[in-house]
Amino acid sequence: MKETGDDRNMNEIRREPLLGRWVSVLSESMKPEDYLSSMEPSAGGHCDLCEEESGGSEEIYSVRDESGKWLVRVVPAMVPVFSPEGDLGRKGVGIYDRMNAIGVNEMLIESPQHNVQPEDMGSDQMLRVVETFTSRVIELEKDVRIRHIMIHKNCGVPSGDACGHPHSLITATPVIPKRVKEELDGAKQYYEYKERCIFCDFMREEERLKERVVMETPYFLVFCPYAARFPFEFWILPRIHNCSFRDITEEEQRDLSETLSIMFRKLRRLLKNPPYNYVLHTAPSRIPRRNHWHTLGEDFHWHIEVMPRLKSIGSFELGSGMYTLTTSPEDAAKYLKEVSHGD
């Protein structure tokens, strides 16, 4: 990037004006040969996340046992795209818009053990992870520059996991990503037309039909969406309407941790430990555009989307945005419901 001044060494985000999509651009470009290096997660040997000083920086947050040994840790991401230091530096470049990549990249280390997932460490470990998510979202939302916070996870090579140690990510951005904005706008339009939350309607319809429901708990419903993008994709929705994950109750936290543990074990047993991604979509900060989001509390509903990566995305899907499901959501739900989650 050819910038001058204090911002010249910062990553930036650029807005694509046709679709309104934001992309991150690194200040130091990778060279062609950099892409040829192996991206396989470490199966053994040295792992930075197994070390006490994991992440190469000071600890942001941790949960420890009585002896002081860490059980869950939050550290800065190893290669952060966003930085909390500096200002947004919004500017136009001809017809284009850009700003500094102000934000936060955090890594939540879900397990002290390299090859043991939190769902395999007992019921309390996943609860620690969920409680840490909540604590970090509440803390990060205090920064008025932050517009959106996403909790997400890459597990397995095709998902983008280049580490191998159980971890998830927390990314806070100064803009609302396009995929999230489309969801927010769709929910807002549905509410304006029907005066009901579309996600609550999803749950009512899925519970009425039952054919795509995988799991029902006191506080959550798990189902394969009617028009899923990926085979065996499933969503987890809280039964109690709430637009923001930060407002989750203690009872919901415990129920969610049990639900996640069961579903990840089901997925692993059914599909032989598949790579997957998950994202948690929650309400954005309403401070910058309070008037625009005045019905957000009624029209949006936080939720988790889990997407197994069982097949490559082809040129038609990339070019059209239309996905091809090789297993119907109805059959996927049947398989997921029937498979045991025990060892």
UniProtKB/TrEMBL annotation:
<feature type="domain" description="Galactose-1-phosphate uridyl transferase C-terminal">
    <location>
        <begin position="187"/>
        <end position="337"/>
    </location>
</feature>
<dbReference type="GO" id="GO:0008108">
    <property type="term" value="F:UDP-glucose:hexose-1-phosphate uridylyltransferase activity"/>
</dbReference>
<dbReference type="InterPro" id="IPR036265">
    <property type="entry name" value="HIT-like_sf"/>
</dbReference>
<dbReference type="InterPro" id="IPR001937">
    <property type="entry name" value="GalP_UDPtransf1"/>
</dbReference>
<dbReference type="InterPro" id="IPR005850">
    <property type="entry name" value="GalP_Utransf_C"/>
</dbReference>
<dbReference type="GO" id="GO:0008270">
    <property type="term" value="F:zinc ion binding"/>
</dbReference>
<keyword id="KW-0808">Transferase</keyword>
<dbReference type="InterPro" id="IPR053177">
    <property type="entry name" value="ADP-glucose_phosphorylase"/>
</dbReference>
<dbReference type="GO" id="GO:0017103">
    <property type="term" value="F:UTP:galactose-1-phosphate uridylyltransferase activity"/>
</dbReference>
<keyword id="KW-0548">Nucleotidyltransferase</keyword>
<protein>
    <submittedName>
        <fullName>Galactose-1-phosphate uridylyltransferase</fullName>
        <ecNumber>2.7.7.10</ecNumber>
    </submittedName>
</protein>
<dbReference type="GO" id="GO:0006012">
    <property type="term" value="P:galactose metabolic process"/>
</dbReference>
<dbReference type="Pfam" id="PF02744">
    <property type="entry name" value="GalP_UDP_tr_C"/>
</dbReference>
